[in-house]
Amino acid sequence: MQFLIYGYKEYKKIIQRKVFYSSFFITLVVSFFTILAMMHEFKDTAGIYAAFFQNLMMSGLFIALFIQRGNLSGQSMGIAVCKMVGTALAAVCFYLYFRTPLITIISMAIFIYDWIYIVLIYRFYVKYAK
Asked: How large is the greatest C-alpha to C-alpha distance in the chain, in angstroms?
């Protein structure tokens, strides 16, 4: 909902409002069917693989958003740390009960990206908190 309410401000210089909302809904539909296909492909009725891939993508997108904006608008150290802690707890639980090489590699990649994100935010605070 926040993306639909506030997201257009980020893109209004490059696309029209109707293109913004249309592309959101098209992406939502494609994502829905992609997740269903992943669940079928991996025989994963719980959607574990899809969830970890989404989390990995979010970690990369948080970094990209920070770099693109060059500021902490809509982001904070609290968000970064909570994301990392939540992902770490989920990764440990899945490692204990659903151990696969793919989930392990994705979990480690998420941890690395989340750590990079925290370091970027920390450096921003140190540089501009004066």
From this structure: 53
Q: What's the Cα-to-Cα distance from 13 to each of 8, 10, 16, 17, 50, rounded to whole Å?
A: 9, 8, 8, 10, 33
Q: Which domain holds residue 102?
A: 46-130
Burial of 20 by CB count in 10 Å (0-12 exposed, 13-18 middle, 19+ buried)?
Answer: middle
Distance CA(111)–CA(89), nearest Å, equals: 11
| CA atoms of 51 and 38, how far apart (whole Å) | 10
Q: What confidence tens digit (pLDDT) does each residue in 28-86 have? A: 999 999 999 999 999 999 899 999 999 999 999 999 999 988 998 888 999 999 999 99
Number of domains in the chain: 2
**pTM (predicted TM-score):** 0.84
Whether 97 and 125 map to the same domain: the answer is yes
